[in-house]
Amino acid sequence: MGHINRRSALLLATSAVFVPLPALAQPMRIKLYKDPNCPCCEGHAAHLDSNGFAVEVIPTIDLLAKFAEHQVPSQLNGCHLIEVDGYVVIGHVPVEAIRKMLTERPSIIGISIPGMPVGLPGMEGPRSGPIAVYEIVPGAGRTRVFMNV
Questions:
Q1: In angstroms, rounded to a whole number, what is the distance separating the alpha carbons of residues 75 and 63?
Q2: Residues in the chain with pLDDT < 70?
């Protein structure tokens, strides 16, 4: 087996500088719309930020308008709405569910954990059991379980 000469090593090292590596990729940018008086949303934003997302927190006094804009049925509303890569995420959804949605790219509006269950990112405390993450499906308020966390 041959060895790499000095010129080949220099060429290889130089080309590595110009080739984008996945590890050096920019974090995915997301927008998190929240009520200005809700502190738990900041905890969820910190969870997302520490897991590779670049979070822009946008206080808004009219979350209901954002839910309506994205066709989120009222039974799936939560305390905040995230816009990420063409999808919405409602509530304190853990990053593994968001990554699953972004990887699988299902034909849905997004995912939701309605309400504010304890034991999720931003809602500290013991979890009483698995929590359903629901799909937000286009149409008349239909929902399905996307996964349990």
A1: 14
A2: 1-25, 140-142
- The 3-state DSSP class for residue 90 equals strand
- Enter the tokens of residue 27: 């974090």
Residues across the chain: 149
CB atoms within 10 A of CB 56: 12
Single pTM value for the model = 0.79
Q: How far lies 70's CA from each of 14, 66, 78, 87, 94, in Å?
A: 46, 6, 13, 9, 20
Could you give the CA distance from residue 109 to residue 47 in angstroms, rounded to a whole number? 22
Give yes or no for a contact between 75 and 141, defined as CB atoms under 8 angstroms apart: yes
CB atoms near residue 108 (< 10 Å): 18
Cα–Cα nearest to 110, from 89, 96, 131, 95: 89
